[in-house]
Please model this.
Amino acid sequence: MSNQPGSLVLNGVHHSARPTWKLRETVEFYRDIMGLKLIHAVSARGWGPSAHPDFLHFFFDSGKDSTIAFFYYLGAEQAPHLVHRPEYDSDASHTSWQVSHRDQLLAWRERLERNGVDIMYQIEHEVIESIYFRDPNGYYLEIALPLRGFSQLDAMDAERTIEAAIEVADEYRTAGKELDSIEAVWQRKGRNLMASLEIGQEESRERDY
Amino acid sequence: MVTLFVPDLPEFAALIEASRKTAGYFVQEPQAGYWRIEAAGELHFNRKALGLKPALWNSALSGGFLGHILEYGRDDLRIGSGPA
Model:
């Protein structure tokens, strides 16, 4: 079977899940403040690994058949490495929901603020405008308004960017150095792009000839 | 010569518009989806003049370039020719 993109597809997100040690606060935040319907809850004895505690696994509706889910482990202490550290690298693990219209984005901001949730940022990125906030666990959350759809050029540009980054990162690693600036990636991308354009012109000239 | 490639995407249009109005900058129509901005000496852009918010300002060179960054601050960006 082919492994080409599109030969086997996924049908959106069923759930993403994180652990919580704040049962009441988590339910009150997602169900009562955000207004996401609690649509499923598993309550079970610990099973599988012998040390596995009994647990609750509960799901909130986040639209288009997607859910955000939590595990609450009974009698299990929160390990220090699972206490969310509010820094960029930990916040990289986050959930970003989407809305369809700007008035919806602003309405979410208004609802959250009215309920005492701090909106940390509202940022216009390349293709989305987003608000950012935290849940009672400290987890980083985002609601995003797409400013435009993804185009074929976005996909081609992404391939060029990541190809250049892998090339440079591999070279640095081989040389025992750390790639610590995006400049080298942009330079490599530019070099690769120039080379491909020159090859294209050469092929075009040969065709014309 | 310094060369900056700019993806032909709406969020980067301000770079093209500003370059077209700048003496000494040569703007070439998109090839393979990329505008090409060239100058004999340096390319200089000002964030406020472009009207770019910080997120886009910080990815303004993401199309790739030939040259090296001389300055990339909060409001001013200068790219010089040749390797760093």
